[in-house]
Amino acid sequence: MFAAVTQVRCVDAAREAARLAARGDRSVAVAAARRVAPAGAEISLRDEGDRVIALVMSDTPLLPVLELRAEAVAVKEPDPRA
Question: 33 exposed, middle or buried (CB, 10 Å; 0-12, 13-18, 19+)?
Fold first, then answer.
């Protein structure tokens, strides 16, 4: 059960990070993801063309050999200043 809750938190954090990063504010995206993600989770963002991909990875304390991960993709929003 604990692993399932941790996985859901990884999914939620990845989704939030991708959505905010697509708006152009990566530091806010990572900070928001950290608030949602399990403690100690690794959060990364990368660009692929017109998309932003957020990856959240976390170990589970009760099952140390199990690494949970979630990935979310969002299309970058146009820069309103351009």
Answer: buried
